[in-house]
Structures are given as C-alpha cells and as structure tokens.
C-alpha cells in the first residue's frame, strides 16, 4: 500500500510539473493543478500531498524562476488546503464553492501585489501610454482607417481597470465550481466518496444572495459621500457580478429544457454556441434567470 501511495505521489509530481510548464503557454492548464492535488489528498492525506505540493513549488522555482515557484504557492497553496478541509468535513457544495472562491480571490490579490500589479502601477501614466500605443498598433494592423482618439482609449482603459474586481470575482467562482466538479468525479471514479455537486441544469441562486447584493448597493449609495468616486465603481462591479450569476442561472434553465426535450447533439451544440456568440442572447438569458428566480420554472426544491 505504501509503495502504491509513493507511486501515486511521484506520478502526481510529474503531472503537476508538466501542467505548470504547459500553463505558461496555455494558461487553461493551470485549472487542473489544484484538482489533482485535491483528489490525491483524499486518498493519501493532506500532509503528505501538501508536502509534495511544496516540493513542486521548490522545483518550479529552481527550474523556471523563484518568482514562479512563490506564485504557485500563493495561488494554489491556500486553495488546496481549504478545499481539502471543506470536503473532508462534508460541508455543503454551495458553502465549499463560496469559501474556496473567496480564498482564491484573496490569493489572487496577494499574487497581484507580489508581481507588482498594484493600483499605483495600473494607474501610472506609463501603463496608460503603453495601452494606448498597443491599441493604436492593433487598430493600424487591422486596417482601421477611422481610428480612436487618445481620450477615448484612455476612457476605455480606465473602465477596464475599474472592472478588474468583478472579473477576478467571477474567475474565482468559476474556478471553484470547476475544481469541485472535476475533483468529485475523479474521486468517485477511484471509489472515494464526497458530497457530489449539483448538475449544472439544476443550478439555482441561494435565496438570500439577491437581497445581500441589493443591500450592499444601498449601503454603498448611502455612504457615497465618504466613498466618493469609488461608490459608482463598486456598484458597477456588483451589477456585473450579479448579472453574471443571473446569466449562469438563465443558461442552466436552457440546459435543463434542452436535456428534457432530448434534442440531438448537433442541435444542442448550436444552441450552446449561440448563447455566447449571438449578440443580445446574453441579455435574454439574464432576463430568463430573473424570471426563473421568481417563478421557479424548473420546480426545483430549496
């Protein structure tokens, strides 16, 4: 049994090193790194597996650079630990996803500061100038004869920067959900048992979430005199996050009915692709998400 465990850990380390190197070219591979450590921790124990993870961070620091090794430790270390704790203590799927998403969000913020991606550097004249020059070069290469003024490009840059918090929150939620889904399936295939996540077609919003978001907006508006210009930025970020959640809810309703109607694979594919590519479809799904939250079209139990 010990030999088998050692073989699994050795295989885990090889896989994680390969994924880390591939992730430099294709960042999507980073999604699988916490999954393989979480799965193995269920069978081999968190102490042994996290020790292996620390060894991987050290190896990456020696092979690539110390900054990359520390970055991996900051990003995935707390995430793996809290994930193992939540599933080992059989917390609900919703609680696990929310808590691990918060932990990854905080880890991302720390990693941003580690690499020098701070508010001061983002808002520096050099960063804005670099963005403007890059966009001008991209427009020229695309043959855009009309062009965009520097004032407009600066406004676009500022708006993009202001929406970074909502983008990081959404990224954290998606990663937490994907990690739980992939890890639970892998654990089940190996004969393990954890609380299984809900099917995406049964996704629903916790009843208190819209009220919490609404109260947050009211409080931000109430204290806008203290917050100044940040109040409008915070409200816009909350609107984007809530809009994304409603979009996901609406998409899950579509998936539910598509599965219920037993449509062919090609038609399913066309419907799912249309959700992301057809202009205006995203707004329709947000509205559908609102209606499903109110009327519970799928008759899901609380």
Automatic annotation (TrEMBL):
Keyword check for Transmembrane: yes
InterPro entries, A to Z: DUF2232 (IPR018710)
Keywords of the record: Membrane, Transmembrane, Transmembrane helix
Transmembrane feature ranges: 12-39, 46-64, 96-115, 156-180, 201-223, 235-257, 269-295
Regions annotated as coiled coil: none
Protein name: DUF2232 domain-containing protein
């Amino acid at each position: 049994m010990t030999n088998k465990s050692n073989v699994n850990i050795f295989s885990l380390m090889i896989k994680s090193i390969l994924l880390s190197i591939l992730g430099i070219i294709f960042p999507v591979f980073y999604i699988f790194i916490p999954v393989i450590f979480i799965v193995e921790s269920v069978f081999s124990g968190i102490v042994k597996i996290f020790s292996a993870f620390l060894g991987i961070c050290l190896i990456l620091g020696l092979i690539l650079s110390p900054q990359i090794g520390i970055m991996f430790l900051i990003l995935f270390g707390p995430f793996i630990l809290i994930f193992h704790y939540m599933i080992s203590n059989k917390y609900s799927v919703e609680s696990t996803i929310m808590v691990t998403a918060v932990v990854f969000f905080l880890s991302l913020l720390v990693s941003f500061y580690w690499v020098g991606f701070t508010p001061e550097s983002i808002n520096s004249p050099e960063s804005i100038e670099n963005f403007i020059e890059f966009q001008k070069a991209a427009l020229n290469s695309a043959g855009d004869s009309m062009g965009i003024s520097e004032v407009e490009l600066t406004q676009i840059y500022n708006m993009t920067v202001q929406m970074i918090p909502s983008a990081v929150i959404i990224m954290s939620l998606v990663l937490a959900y994907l990690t739980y889904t992939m890890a639970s399936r892998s654990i089940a295939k190996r004969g393990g048992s954890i609380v299984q996540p809900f099917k995406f077609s049964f996704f629903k919003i916790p009843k208190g979430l819209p009220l919490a978001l609404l109260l947050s907006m009211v409080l931000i508006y109430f204290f806008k005199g203290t917050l100044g210009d940040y109040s409008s930025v915070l409200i816009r970020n909350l609107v984007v996050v809530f809009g994304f959640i409603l979009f996901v809810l609406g998409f899950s309703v579509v998936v539910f009915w598509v599965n219920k109607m037993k449509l062919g694979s090609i038609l399913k594919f066309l419907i799912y692709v249309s959700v992301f590519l057809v202009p205006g479809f995203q707004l329709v799904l947000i509205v559908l998400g609102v209606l499903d939250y109110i009327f519970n079209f799928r008759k899901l139990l609380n």
